[in-house]
Amino acid sequence: MNEEEMVTKLEAITTAKEDLVSILNEKRKVINAEFELAMAKFEDENSLAITRIKEIDAETIDLKESITESAKTEFAVDGFKKRFGGIGIRVMNVVEYSDAHALTWAKKHELCLKLDSSAFKKIAKTQDIDFVTKSEKVTVTFPAKINLEGK
Fold this sequence. Notes:
The chain has four helices and two strands, in the order ααβααβ. By secondary structure, it is mainly alpha-helical. The chain starts with a helix and ends in a 10-residue tail after the last strand.
């Protein structure tokens, strides 16, 4: 096949592809329209359940926020990490610092040319560094399924 024949064939198959893509796009539009109608019908037929699910989601968020605050407060008083219903308390050591100060410190201690934040955090948790603030962060964990059988 010479160059002219190859170019002619290329044009023919490119056109065939464009035609097929166009046909598929039209079919896709029809399917999308049918899907949108089906979804509208589904949402209309199930509007009460959908609304209730949204209400439950909002109530769940509010309850979890209240439980979190209550559990943190009670943990501060009693120190118990295992709470009612399988809810737990996790205490993590947290370090806060300026990246610029940390980089300067790391260079001074010949640790790096670029700050390795995870390595610095490990060092900062075990050493006293003047620009690092250390604290504990208390988080509340929720089990996948609340267990009311005991604590």
